[in-house]
Specification:
Blueprint (H helix, E strand, L loop, with lengths): L14 H20 L6 H13 L3 E2 H8 L3 H13 L3 E5 L7 E5 L1 H21 L5 H33 L1
Antiparallel strand pairs: 1-3, 2-3
Length: 163
């Protein structure tokens, strides 16, 4: 029987801590790459999320996806509007809600951002084969599901205790 400690337990930070650090570094790399396009981290991240969620996404859904509060998102969206990269339109079905759409210029910039991100991913994935990347991806998906399940369970327990 081997008493060897699994590699993930030998990391200076926990596995989750290491993932957080790598995530911050990856965002910083993209931010540096898109800076010549006039985009800050909050701006390019918002553009990527709008694209991921599809045009016509509500501000509320975008804020939820980004994990930020509405005032922070509103400031970023106003900046993107000033740069003429997006437009916000009142939802015809819910006048309290605004939907977000790309302008032609916004689509062009998003294409440039996606090209840069593809180049960066290729650099960051250097030395890793598809099997290794797939194992990491499956692990991350499972960890995300476990985290969501834990959060939901805690919310359910709190709601049951409050009644």
């Amino acid at each position: 029987m081997s008493n060897q400690i699994p590699f993930h337990e030998t990391l200076a930070l926990t596995l989750c801590g290491s993932m957080g650090r790598v995530h911050r570094l990856c965002r910083e790399v993209v931010t540096i790459a898109v800076e010549p396009l006039g985009l800050t981290q909050s701006r390019w991240v918002a553009l990527v999320h709008i694209n991921m969620l599809n045009e016509g996404v509500t501000q509320q859904a975008l804020a939820h996806s980004l994990g930020i509060e509405m005032p922070s998102l509103t400031r970023t969206l106003k900046q993107l509007e000033a740069l003429m990269l997006i437009t916000r339109q009142v939802d015809i079905h819910d006048k309290r809600s605004k939907k977000i759409y790309f302008t032609a210029q916004g689509r062009h910039i998003l294409n440039d951002v996606n090209t840069l991100i593809t180049d960066i991913k290729n650099q960051l994935y250097a030395g890793l084969n598809d099997e290794q990347l797939d194992v990491m991806a499956h692990g991350l998906v499972k960890m995300e599901a476990n985290a969501k399940q834990y959060i939901e369970k805690q919310h359910t327990n709190k709601a049951n205790n409050d009644t």
